[in-house]
């Protein structure tokens, strides 16, 4: 390298049997970079082919009539292929959830933030640990849901209280179409 | 001799005879290999059985969430010898893992991971990882309850990865839950990976033949007097091992084919309900126990559990550097040998913990199994730490080694 720099600074004729290594390194790197960009571009369609397809994305909403749901009764409805628990809570269950507001929670949230109508609890029934479906209301400590896979306990607001799960049961986006009819999910596209 | 003339013609163009001689029949092998050295060739034999039975099962299987469960029953009831192909394949997975576990433990006991065999060892770990992935995806294909929820739990492990985790899981699923797209791609990968493994096995053998086999004494053989040709000595010994293996394998296939299978997997997959007690296949149980044992770190538990589980295998990569003893074989290392057997027993204990429900207890609740799981996890990783401690600080006094074989 030193010899090359020397030959340049003194504008002496370059030695023919010594290739210009700086130039060659640059060409190799530039060609390699263009090649890598090309490969990455070509790989993109393959990678994207694994993302949810249009027909999967179209299964966006589920409509549920909860008028037949008695106090303390819970149903499981499918939404986007995932189970959603809908529970009409008893006064005791609502009181237990309100009491939980004052506790130190792993994933702090007030019960009021998690329900639109205090009587109707809507939660995505997938444990935030590893995605098992928790068991119905009343199975866990705190009067709520127990995930059987790894022993996570959720309270009557679907908040994580005990066990390995890091987060509360998520509340999916939903709206009340009528007093007793709710629509889970947002229409997309 | 016509045959000789043909072979001369071929050898002038492709030196097959020379290759077979140097790499197989006359390949120099230490004269003192014991029966623990059978398990490498047995693993290859099992891999071939898996590829063959799998290929023929694939000719009848349909990777469709609406058909997969029924088509497995179709294979069992309608396809000629379909039951045999399936039971050979399902039990073959069990025996493949038995072979590999013995093979790995043999390497750990006799120091086969030590210089100059590090790369050989690493290729083996890579093969093991691919094998676990293949086995996991294969277990999803019958689309029973255990298949479905096993897939849900394992794919959800990815969601522990910070920032990109959640999106990554959706990408792997091809939807918002495990479903038809997931099944389809798992089938494609389950078909592909065994051939990748097969290729990796040849790189493994290439690395082996470059440095030659370790042996129970752990001393380098003097190839002028301590080695014997592979054929007929080890070909016949390997064949004998295969005979013994086939007796056990066929006993399970023909008499208790469902011994290792979970009854719940004969219930069709139901995304709306998780079985009360999900367990992975037995060969994943110790790692599953390690995953579950980290539950005391609050919101970090999940990520930490996943890291511990992956780390429990990945730590094997640095084993060649953790072990600083001048002696390879544990035959001459009394302390290491004790640690090794504690490690082996610990793996069984972890497996037992993994088999039980997460909140199980013993002695009327006095002993939650989660405590056993945490202790077992500590002992598992403790093995690697202790091995380093006793060898790096010369705590272990190794016994005198033989000068030669």
Briefly say what this structure is.
Chain A has 5 helices and 9 strands.
Q: Approximately how much beta-strand content do the residues of chain B carry?
A: under 5%
Q: Biggest interface, which chains?
A: A-B, 32 and 40 residues
Mean pLDDT across every amino acid position of chain A? 84
CATH superfamily (homologous) name of the largest domain in chain B: Cytochrome Bc1 Complex, Chain C
Number of strands of chain B: 4
Class from helix and strand fractions of chain A: alpha+beta
The portion of residues forming beta strands of chain A comes to: 15-25%
* Radius of gyration of chain B, in angstroms, nearest whole number: 23 Å
Round the mean pLDDT of chain B to the nearest integer and report it.
93
CATH topology of the largest domain in chain A: Rieske Iron-sulfur Protein
Radius of gyration of chain A over alpha carbons? 30 Å
Please tell me the total number of domains of chain B. Answer: 2
Oligomeric form of this entry?
Answer: heterodimer
Q: Which blocks of ≥5 consecutive residues of chain A have pLDDT under 50?
A: 1-5
What is this structure's SSE topology?
The complex is a heterodimer of chains A (about 190) and B (about 400).
Chain A: H1 2-9, H2 21-48, H3 54-57, E1 62-65, E2 74-79, E3 82-88, H4 91-100, H5 111-114, E4 120-124, E5 145-147, E6 152-154, E7 160-162, E8 174-178, E9 181-184
Antiparallel strand pairs in A: 1-9, 2-3, 3-4, 5-6, 6-7, 8-9
Chain B: H1 2-13, H2 16-25, E1 28-30, H3 39-58, H4 68-77, H5 82-109, H6 118-140, H7 145-156, H8 165-173, H9 180-211, E2 227-229, H10 230-255, H11 285-293, H12 301-314, H13 319-322, H14 334-355, E3 361-362, E4 367-368, H15 369-392
Antiparallel strand pairs in B: 1-2, 3-4
Helix pairs in contact in B: 3-5, 3-9, 3-10, 4-5, 5-6, 5-10, 6-7, 6-9, 11-12, 11-14, 11-15, 14-15
């Amino acid at each position: 390298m030193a010899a090359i720099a020397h030959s340049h600074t003194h504008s002496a004729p370059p030695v023919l049997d010594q290739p210009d290594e700086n130039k060659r390194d640059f060409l190799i790197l530039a060609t390699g970079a263009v090649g890598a960009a090309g490969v990455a571009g070509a790989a993109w369609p393959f990678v994207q082919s694994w993302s949810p397809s249009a027909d999967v994305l179209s299964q966006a909403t589920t409509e549920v009539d909860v008028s037949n749901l008695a106090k303390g009764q819970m149903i499981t409805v499918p939404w986007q292929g995932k189970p959603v628990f809908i529970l009409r809570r008893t006064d005791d269950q609502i009181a237990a959830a309100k009491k939980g507001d004052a506790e130190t929670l792993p994933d702090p949230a007030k019960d009021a933030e998690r329900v639109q109508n205090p009587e109707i609890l809507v939660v995505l029934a997938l444990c935030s640990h590893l995605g098992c479906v928790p068991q119905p209301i009343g199975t866990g400590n705190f009067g709520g849901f127990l995930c059987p896979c790894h022993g996570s306990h959720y309270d009557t607001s679907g908040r994580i209280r005990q066990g390995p799960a890091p987060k509360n049961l998520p509340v999916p986006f939903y709206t009340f179409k009528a007093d007793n009819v709710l629509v889970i999910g947002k229409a997309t596209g | 001799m016509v045959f000789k003339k043909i072979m001369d013609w071929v050898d002038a163009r492709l030196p097959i005879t020379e290759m077979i001689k140097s790499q197989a029949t006359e390949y120099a092998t230490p004269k003192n290999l014991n029966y623990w050295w059978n398990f490498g060739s047995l693993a290859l034999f099992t891999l071939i059985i898996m590829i063959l039975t799998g290929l023929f099962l694939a000719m009848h299987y349909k990777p469709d969430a609406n058909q997969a469960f029924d088509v497995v029953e179709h294979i069992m009831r309608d396809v000629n010898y379909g039951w045999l192909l399936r039971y050979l394949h399902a039990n073959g997975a069990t025996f493949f893992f038995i072979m590999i576990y013995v093979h790995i433990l043999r390497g750990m006991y006799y120091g086969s991971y030590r210089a100059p065999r590090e790369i050989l060892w690493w290729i083996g770990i890579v093969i093991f990882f691919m094998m676990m992935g293949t086995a996991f995806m294969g277990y999803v294909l019958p689309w029973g309850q255990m298949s479905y929820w096993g897939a849900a739990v394992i794919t959800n492990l990815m969601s522990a990865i910070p920032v990109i985790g959640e999106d990554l899981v959706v990408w792997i699923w091809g939807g918002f839950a495990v479903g038809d797209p997931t099944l389809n791609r798992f089938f494609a990968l389950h078909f592909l990976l065994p051939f990748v493994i097969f290729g990796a096995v040849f790189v493994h053998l290439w690395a082996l033949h470059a440095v030659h086999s370790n042996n129970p004494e752990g001393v380098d053989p003097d190839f002028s007097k301590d080695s014997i040709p592979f054929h007929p000595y080890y070909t016949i010994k390997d064949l004998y091992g295969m005979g013994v293996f086939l007796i056990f394998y066929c006993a399970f296939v023909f008499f208790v084919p469902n011994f290792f299978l979970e009854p719940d997997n004969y219930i069709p997959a139901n995304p709306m309900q998780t079985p009360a007690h999900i367990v992975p296949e037995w060969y994943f149980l110790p790692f599953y126990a390690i995953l579950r044992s980290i539950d005391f770190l609050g919101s970090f538990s999940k990520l930490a559990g996943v890291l511990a589980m992956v780390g429990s295998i990945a730590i094997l990569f640095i084993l060649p550097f953790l072990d600083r003893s001048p002696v390879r074989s544990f035959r001459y290392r009394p302390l290491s040998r004790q640690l090794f057997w504690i490690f082996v027993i610990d793996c069984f204990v972890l497996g037992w913990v993994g088999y039980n429900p997460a909140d199980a207890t013993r002695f009327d609740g006095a002993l939650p199994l989660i405590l056993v799981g945490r202790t077992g996890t500590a002992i598992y990783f403790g093995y690697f730490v202790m091995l380093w401690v006793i060898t790096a600080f010369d705590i272990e006094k190794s016994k005198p080694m033989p000068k030669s074989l």
